[in-house]
Amino acid sequence: MFVFDARDQSVLNELDYTNSLLRPLIHDLERIRAEGYPDARLLGEAPILHQWTPAVRPVSCLTGLSSGHPLLPGTARPIVTSEVWLIAPQEGWARTLSRFYRLGKPASGGPDQ
Q1: Can you give the pTM of this predicted structure?
Q2: Where are the domains of the chain?
């Protein structure tokens, strides 16, 4: 998660780096969607992972009371967002993996308290 400040060059550099990682992922996902599977050459160059198992690691998210969500109807409905990629508390917005959120008042003890 990036705390976004358009004046902070280090944040902009980190955002550029993250974009450079995400572009190839998006390209691969689009190719797999169109062609079905990665080609044999691509897989032949990939490293092998032995004794693998699925795992979970924590990611940054937001919790709060949502109103006007397109998929989770209701007013002041408790939710947990998808992974937060950018947050600009001073400007009042956040971008999660799935959408933008307008940020209202933080919870007591939150970042603006």
Answers
A1: 0.73
A2: 2-102
